[in-house]
Amino acid sequence: MAVTIEDLYRSYGVLADAKDDLSQHKDAYQVILDGVKGGPKEKRLAAQFIPKFFSSFPELADSAINAQLDLCEDEDVSIRRQAIKELPRFATGDNILRVADILTQLLQTDDTPEFNQVTGALVSIFKIDAKGTLGGLFSQILQGEDIVRERAIKFLSTKLKTLPEDVMTKEMEDYVFAETKKVLEDVTGEEFVLLMRVVSGLRVLQTVNGRQQLVELVVEQAFLEQALNPADPDTVDRLLQCTRQALPLFSKNVHSTRFVTYFCEHVLPNLSALTSPVAELDIQLEVLKLLAEMSPFCGDMEKLEPNLNMLFIKLLEFMPVPPEEAENGETPASEEPKLQFSYVECLLFGFHQLGKKLPDFLIEKVDAERLKDFKIRLQYFARGLQVYIRQLRVALQGKSGDALKTDENKIKVVALKITNNINVLIKDLFHNPPSFKSTVSLSWKPVQKAEAAALKRPSSEEVGTGDSIKKQVSSQPRRDARQIYNPPSGKFSATIGNFTYEQRGGFRGGRGRGFGGRGNRSRGRIY
């Protein structure tokens, strides 16, 4: 006979009045367990009563948990929510791992209030037993369905950092790091980014040694021991994502040497052949930006000279030779080569950074003919640069506040920063011998107050490229009497600002478990 509301209240009364002698009323608790087979009202009451007396009947623990799970799968969403809300009360002793595993699987729900209930329940059992909860989460990440795995990883990436230190102890953080390394053996690009967010936020890894461990983790994912296949967008995507994750970890004590070396030896020689994982991405500029950002943190490099030479070769490719003049000394505008400022800033900055480690490179490692050609290109580029800087200053003169926030003026502000950076670096290279002492902040990095103020008044470095350039320019007749270079459109990439690209990409497949290793289980009894 089906259990009624009256039966449930009667059994509840018996157990509530029994106080210290609850174990003698096993039959009453069984009636409450049977309530899950009743109608909606009976089920809602059972969802509240089962956990209340759960700890008093250890011999019925499995039956009680299974009954509550039946309610967590009920067709009525209000019953499911009530059952889920009470699940943390079952998280005692050996049951914690099972409850965590169940709650992790329940993350697959598409009902927002129910999903929030599940995440709230997971957070609450973290405070009961952090290791057991983590065990349940990682169990599903490693073995669960794709949707459960994806949401469990997202849960860790958003919620772990909110837990207090008395919950996420050093032991727990070490456990998270160890388990994450297992998961990273086979991940998608999106999963990799989220998992790196998880481990990067661990307090135990906020030391030099900890950051070095994280870099090692990224190096392993980046496959830096393998040659690059520039035609494979998944391979290129993997390298981009890994490099982006490594960038924030680099410092004067945690070096970027292996990444910079790989870029010089495998990426730069294939720069024009790189296949972008996203159609609208300027893959060449993206790669050069990453190289520029890493270069200040490069340590001792085994093959410094050939790598610096590769940077030098690429820099020459983007610095055009001055065009031939007509008999009247003028150069037709159609024949003026485009100056690729965005690319040159990256390459010049990287060359400048690595050049500090081999300051005599241009004097002793480059033959006289190549050096002469390089200086001619530098001089031509510097003249075109000055024209563009003047045009930008005129365009931005007197503008401040909201006027500088228009899309057009934002581009001009960044363009001015790019040209000023190149100007400073070229000035260094025109020293005799070449100097590598100047410091610039890359144009796509956040603007500091001091830099913003510099837009209002030009410094001596922004006015010209130094005495050596001025002397060379003045020695050539009629050069200063005409507009040397009228910058055409399209010299600055549309992706001039910060990196915004984040792509789910080909990390998984061909390693470890792969997609095929996961069971395709139904929602049914998944526990």
UniProtKB/TrEMBL annotation:
SUPFAM superfamilies: ARM repeat. Pfam families: API5. GO terms for biological process: apoptotic process; negative regulation of apoptotic process. It is found in: Nucleus. GO terms for molecular function: RNA binding. Residues 456-488, 507-527 are annotated as: Disordered. Signal peptide: none annotated. Gene3D superfamilies: Leucine-rich Repeat Variant (1.25.10.10). Keywords: Apoptosis, Nucleus, Repeat. Residues 507-519 have a biased composition (Gly residues). GO terms for cellular component: nucleus. Belongs to the API5 family. PANTHER family: APOPTOSIS INHIBITOR 5, APOPTOSIS INHIBITOR 5-RELATED. This is Apoptosis inhibitor 5. The lineage of its organism: Eukaryota, Metazoa, Chordata, Craniata, Vertebrata.
